[in-house]
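Late entry, evening session. Most of the bench is empty. Finally got around to the prediction I had been postponing all week. Sequence below, unchanged from the version circulated by S.P.
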Amino acid sequence: TQIAARDLTSEDPLPGVDGIAAELAHVADAVLEISLAYARQEVDDSGCVRLAVLTMGKTGAQELNYISDVDVIFVSEPADAKTGRVAGEMMRIGSMAFFEVDAALRPEGKSGELVRTLESHEAYYRRWAKTWEFQALLKVRPMTGDLALATDYHATVQPLVWTAAGRDDFVHDVQAMRRRVEENVPEALRERELKLGRGGLRDVEFAVQLLQMVHGRTDEELRVTSTVDALGALRDGGYI
């Protein structure tokens, strides 16, 4: 409430670019850290299980808005029924207390295992991941739980992101994904839908991410998570 009040009364019409959005992401971090602690109690886990929670999407980039889901991905050692219960309970508690917590960006999406080992994650991204999944990894950020394991995950998958643009049909895959997103918007709203419609926020994100993944292979200045920061880096580098 305090964040929203400050946002609404600010003289700056865009305070969320580097302030409000980051604060909302910090709140999400805090809520999920507490949710994980409660989840461990519910499942009777004293903390012996190594469970890392990373966040993706707008939360990962610390550009969260008021209606976004909080996207997460879980890494654990081991990945078993108990760690799965802890992760599921954390999502349930977090969703009750704050925004919807969503793990659909994990390998194989909603049909995939909720928790995987680091080795399993790496194998999936090396062999089967689609281009859009590497786009999602642009914004991954260690959040809570076993942060050493989360950092190992981040260090493992990030180099794969910067080789994705060399895959066959890379540009075609990005364009196809954008078309699928737009097709889910009713025709009458496609010119007006702020997020998913033509020229909307998702178009900006897709354009920025495409340029990052292509030029970020050789230019490490483009390897940033925030869309606004990435736009600045692309401008400074002469790409736009």
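Two things to note before I forget:
The chain has a mean pLDDT of 90.
The longest helix spans residues 20-42.
Will write this up properly tomorrow.
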